[in-house]
Amino acid sequence: MTLYDDTLTLLKELVRNACVNDLTPDSGQEVRNADTLERFFAGTPGVEISRLEPRSGRTSIIVTVPGSDPDAEPLTLLGHTDVVPVDAPKWTKDPFAAEISDGRIWGRGTVDMLFITAAQAAVTRLIAREGGLRGTLTFVGVADEEARGGLGAKWLSEEHPEAFSWRNTLSESGGSHIPAKDGSDAVIVTVGEKGAAQRRLHVHGDAGHGSIPFDRDSAIVKIGEVARRIAAVDLNVAKDDVWQGFVRAFRFDPATEQSLLDGTDPSAYGSFGALARYAHAVSHLTIAQTVVRAGQAINVLPSHAHLELDIRTLPGQTNDYVDDVLRTALGDLADEVEIEHLISEEATVSSTDSGLYRVLEKVLGDFFPDATVVPTISSGGSDLRFGRRLGGVGYGFAVHARERTVAEALGQLHSHDEALYLEDLELTVRGYEAVVREFLG
Ligand SMILES: [Zn+2]
Question: How confident is the prediction for the chain on average, in pLDDT?
Answer without folding.
Answer: 96
